[in-house]
Write a structure and sequence with these properties.
two-stranded antiparallel ribbon, mainly alpha, 4 strands, two-stranded antiparallel sheet, binds zinc ion, 13 helices, about 35% helix
């Protein structure tokens, strides 16, 4: 969970006062002219400074991505949030891919609908945005641990939950380098991350066809995620309701961006607890060597986290702190993955890099939890 859409709502009822860090692209923006516009004013009129927790706010994912693509500036400058030089800028499709983990397009199925929502694609910022917020807030409430400590509702493939809810509160929280529940073993979270990494990297490499059915893919642990979604292809997943990025190389960049998101989130303290182990080097079977980030001590899970404390560690302050920390971090790992992608490095080598370098575990059986400083007080 993490990223981008921290919505800052000012006290003004004017919807244009929102600094929503998403942008419509291509067909999506044209559809925006037909669909309802942002109208979150009812939230702002209550004077609520509304924050969608779990998101890196203020274009942080975008900045990390541009930096991985070569943008360089001081950590505090924020020039890399919106680089002016084309040579230091990530392609738009890659940015949309980075945002996808937080903002996947989805359709509410029969029995899931909320008042005012239509059975067509929902996605920020243009496609039924009011409904997006309703679904998100409703899901957040339903997923919360009850006052008596009993677990909240599950969102998964089997009950055909909306992809938005699976990603943020359900069985696909690995999209944010997080466990799905307290007590989940680090090795299980990592296995899911590796499964997603294989999928996204091989789609980016065009080894997996955009039209391939997800439930048929021979990736360990992957097909089960879409067993009840047998009409879904890789293209459904990434581009439902909007064909803007269905052409190459855009489609590849979408998938690659989704991989970057997982890696970036894994450096956010609310998502994973990393040890500080500078000076380590990891060696791959092809002889290449890479500086190694700190080992993962445990993954966090969100159900018992305080959303405000979590969001604080996804903030621009937290990202700047990360940028000021000794490398390698999210930027350098992203750059290494970009080099792999551009050089058409086989998945087997990339897999080794992610396994022994980026997601190396201190203790495979470490149980996920909220993390003491993030634990919600009830
Ligand atoms: Zn995230």
């Amino acid at each position: 969970m993490a990223l981008l859409l921290l919505l800052y709502c000012s006290l003004s009822p004017d919807a244009s006062a929102f600094k929503l860090k998403t942008e419509a692209a291509g067909i999506e923006s044209r559809k925006a002219n037909l669909e309802s516009r942002w109208s979150l004013s009812r939230y702002t009129t209550k004077g609520v400074s509304f924050v969608l927790d779990n998101f890196w706010d203020e274009l942080n994912h975008e900045e990390l991505t541009h930096r991985s693509f070569g943008c360089a500036s001081d950590a505090e400058s924020r020039i890399c949030m919106l680089p002016t030089s084309a040579s230091a800028r990530a392609p738009l499709a890659a940015l949309v891919g980075v945002r996808w983990n937080d903002n996947p397009p989805f359709v509410l199925e029969d029995g899931q609908t909320l008042s005012g929502c239509r059975g067509t694609t929902i996605k920020l910022p243009a496609l039924q945005p009011d409904c997006w917020l309703k679904v998100f807030l409703d899901g957040q409430r339903r997923a919360s641990v009850r006052a008596d400590g009993s677990p909240g509702e599950q969102f998964n493939s089997a009950n055909r939950s909306a992809l938005l809810l699976r990603s943020h509160f359900g069985d696909m929280q690995f999209l944010h380098a997080m466990a799905t529940r307290d007590g989940e073993l680090a090795s299980d979270t990592k296995a899911q991350i590796m499964s997603w990494a294989e999928f996204s990297y091989r789609v980016a490499q065009s080894e997996i066809a955009p039209g391939a059915y997800l439930y048929e893919l021979k990736i360990p642990g992957f097909a089960a995620l879409f067993d009840k979604q047998r009409g879904w292809t890789a293209m459904t997943l990434f581009t439902l309701g909007d064909g803007t990025f269905r052409v190459e190389p855009d489609f590849s960049w979408l998938a690659f961006g989704s991989l970057l998101h997982v890696v970036q989130d894994s450096f956010a303290r609310g998502h994973a607890d990393r040890a500080d182990t500078p000076g380590q080097v990891c060696r791959l079977s092809n002889g290449s060597e890479f500086p190694k980030p700190g080992r993962i001590r445990s993954f966090r899970s969100y159900a018992n986290q305080d959303s405000g404390t979590h969001a604080n560690e996804d903030s621009v302050r937290a990202m700047t702190e990360h940028l000021l920390s000794p490398p390698p971090g999210a930027v350098e790992v992203g750059a290494a993955l970009l080099a792999f992608h551009r050089n058409k490095t086989p998945w087997q080598i990339v897999s080794e890099y992610l396994d022994v370098c980026v997601f190396d575990l201190e203790d495979a059986s470490a149980a996920a939890g909220p993390g003491q400083e993030f634990r919600v007080r009830r």
